[in-house]
Design brief:
Rossmann fold, Ribosomal Protein S5, domain 2, 18% strand, elongated, Heat Shock Protein 90, 9-stranded mixed sheet, 5-stranded mixed sheet, single chain, 618 residues, 24 strands, 4 domains, alpha+beta, binds adenosine-5'-diphosphate
Length: 618
């Protein structure tokens, strides 16, 4: 007995679903007509499934029945009904598919939107894969009659009882497929008029590959958009088709209509969305590319057609090079599919390159939405790595916040004697700009790339070099900064003494103490040894491996800073060694604090209070 069964034929929704239903039932809506699109699209999916199964299996109910969708409305009774001769649902389907939220976080997201606006955009409901429930916008009670395709399947009636429960009963046998019917709420009675339904359907029904009837009248012309010539397809149709397959009501940023002929044959209609779905980084819900074989739908979300880093792309691919009865297993290992994939990736990256060069604001929009995902291709797709690197954009120390540059632009601006491309990682631009390691670069107007995207930690270390110039973290000790050799030997000796004193005091805390060439305004800074990781990479390692301990840092000391000069003076006079040592500890812990790595502030604050006490004594 399923855990949510409460009586013989009654079941309770899971807690999250109850809340979602409550939210849907009690909200005001923009675009309530979306319920119709959701119902049509579910019926169309169910018809696609039976058509596919029928190709190889005649052992099903009514193997020869017409595949179609029938909508019946009645203005007098105020009722709506949609019937398809699709695959139908089993009892398990009814319990598990209808009545569960596929993606965690859906509810929170919808709630937060609801709080911001008084009304809920019905389009969002579909985007989260709970589209069926959008029907609850226009009715209080839904009935689903369904007969699954297997021989001997009984007809079942699913009925929503209230916001908490539903029932499932066996009823008198009906033909294969599904009928969903309900009475409309008074304020939505316009959807009981055939004319209204036809009007709403106009947009989408031509994309449904099966005849759609409204009160007996056929309302669509079945035509595959991607089989038409480029100049015969209107922009509006393309956008409508996008909405139909993606559930995204925002217009796409762009599309590609491909007709590849030659060694490889396929047609494709590919869209790059204008906004990122809130679930972009989750796996559960992406509906990426649909696979068709000679106009017949084969598979939804065919993951093998695109690498993960392009999974935001929507659309369809139609090829006649696959057998119609191709299974999931076959697509997974099919050489045809992997060749198509290769062409698709090149074409999509080519389109992005084109925007990057010729339509910067479009590319910016794209990059803000999908840049983080795109970058993950750098360490997973060796074939297209170089192209992906060209598509990267970064904020830098020479540009204002929000403005982004490519590596190519960076290199073009580099001074002749600069041999490396410098970067610094950090959580946020403001935080990065407080890092003392930047001082030298800022003073000398050397551009430093700011890596603030958490994904950078995983991707940038895979770049190594660009245009033969190595990428280098400015937090590394072996950075190639021109020496300032104007010191005479006596000051050098004095400096060595103070550095030795630092080493003595910090011997178990740092790997080494060296004179800094990069500091301008700060007395000390911590850097990473040649073999060590960037602080951000360490953070990631700690996240992955709780036992990871970070390598000791190297402390760089700015010998021309007044504090260091004072300490050097005290040391020469051999005076007040306790004050010198305490100052050294204080400087070191201050640097740790800036990195967010000071584990206990007690000693730090205690020493600071002593210093204040000293300097305020009259
Ligand atoms: P989605 O369509 O995004 O999966 P829905 O909430 O719209 O989410 O539908 C949930 C599931 O219910 C579908 O995935 C499908 O398995 C089932 N379903 C809905 N309508 C039908 C139908 N007319 N015929 C067969 N199955 C259906």
């Amino acid at each position: 007995m399923p855990e949510n069964q409460i009586k013989n034929n009654q079941y309770e929704y899971k807690a999250e679903m109850k809340q979602l239903l409550h939210l849907i039932v009690h909200s005001l809506y923009t675009h309530p007509e979306v319920f119709l699109r959701e119902l049509i699209s579910n019926s169309s999916d169910a018809l696609n499934k039976i058509r596919f199964r029928r190709l190889t299996d005649s052992n099903i109910l009514e193997p020869d029945s017409e595949l179609k969708i029938n909508i019946e409305v009645d203005e007098k009774e105020n009722t709506f009904s949609i019937t398809d001769t699709g695959i139908g649902m089993t009892k398990d389907d009814l319990i598990s598919r209808i009545g569960t939220i596929a993606s965690s976080g859906t509810l929170e997201f919808l709630k937060s939107i609801k709080e911001e606006n008084k009304s809920l955009d019905a389009n969002l409901i579909g985007q989260f894969g709970v589209g069926f429930y959008s029907v609850f916008m226009v009715t209080d009670e839904i009935n689903i009659e369904t007969t699954y395709a297997d021989i001997n399947s009984k007809t079942l009636l699913w009925k929503s009882l209230d916001e908490d429960k539903f029932s499932i009963d066996e009823i008198e046998q009906k033909p294969r497929g599904t009928r969903i019917y309900f009475k409309l709420k008074d304020e939505f009675k316009e959807y009981a008029a055939a004319l209204k339904i036809k009007n709403v359907l106009k947009k989408y029904s031509n994309f449904v590959d099966f005849p759609v009837y409204v009160n007996g009248e056929k309302v669509n012309i079945v035509s595959a958009l991607w089989h038409r010539k480029k100049d015969e397809v209107k922009e509006e149709e393309l956008n409508d088709f996008y909405t139909f397959i993606s559930n995204d009501s925002n217009p796409p940023l762009g599309h590609l209509l491909l007709n590849i002929e030659g060694i490889l044959n396929f047609k494709a209609l590919i869209y790059i969305p204008g906004t990122a779905a809130p679930t972009l980084f989750q796996d559960a819900l992406d509906k990426s590319l649909q696979l068709y074989s000679n106009r017949i739908f084969i598979q939804d979300n065919c993951k093998e057609l695109l690498p993960d880093y392009l999974k935001f792309v929507k659309g369809i691919v139609d090829t006649d090079e696959l057998p119609l009865n191709v299974s999931r297993e076959v697509t997974q290992s099919s050489p045809v599919i992997s060749k198509i994939k290769n062409v698709l990736v090149s074409k999509i990256l080519g389109q992005l390159e084109d925007w990057a060069e010729n339509d910067k604001s479009k590319y910016d929009k794209f990059y803000n939405n999908f840049g983080s995902l795109l970058k993950t291709g750098i360490n997973s797709d060796f074939t297209h790595k170089d192209k992906l690197i060209e598509l990267l954009r970064f904020e830098t120390s020479l540009k204002s916040s929000g403005e982004k540059v490519s590596l190519k632009e960076y290199v073009q601006r580099m001074a002749e004697n600069q041999k490396e491309i410098y970067y610094i990682m950090g959580d946020h631009r403001n935080f990065i700009e407080m890092n003392p390691n930047l001082e030298y670069f800022r003073k000398n107007e050397i551009e430093v790339i700011y890596l603030t995207d958490p994904v950078d930690v995983f991707t940038i270390p895979y770049i190594f070099e660009y245009d033969k110039k190595p990428l280098k973290s400015i937090e590394k000790a072996d950075i190639d900064i021109n020496k300032n050799d104007d010191l005479n030997s006596s000051t050098e000796n004095q400096n060595n003494n103070i550095l030795e004193q630092f080493k003595k005091v910090l011997s178990d805390k740092v790997e080494d103490v060296i004179e800094s060439k990069r500091l301008v305004d700060s007395p000390v800074t911590l850097v990473v040894g040649k073999q060590g990781f960037d602080p951000q990479v360490e953070k990631m390692m700690q996240y992955i491996d709780k036992n990871f301990t970070h390598s000791k840092r190297i402390l760089e000391v700015n010998v021309s800073h007044s504090i260091i000069k004072n300490l050097t003076g005290l040391l020469i006079e051999d005076k007040n060694i306790e004050l010198i040592n305490n100052s050294i500890l204080q400087l070191f812990e201050g640097a740790l604090l800036l990195e967010g790595k000071l584990s206990s502030p007690n000693e730090f604050v205690k020493r600071m209070n002593e210093f204040i006490d000293l300097s305020t004594k009259s």
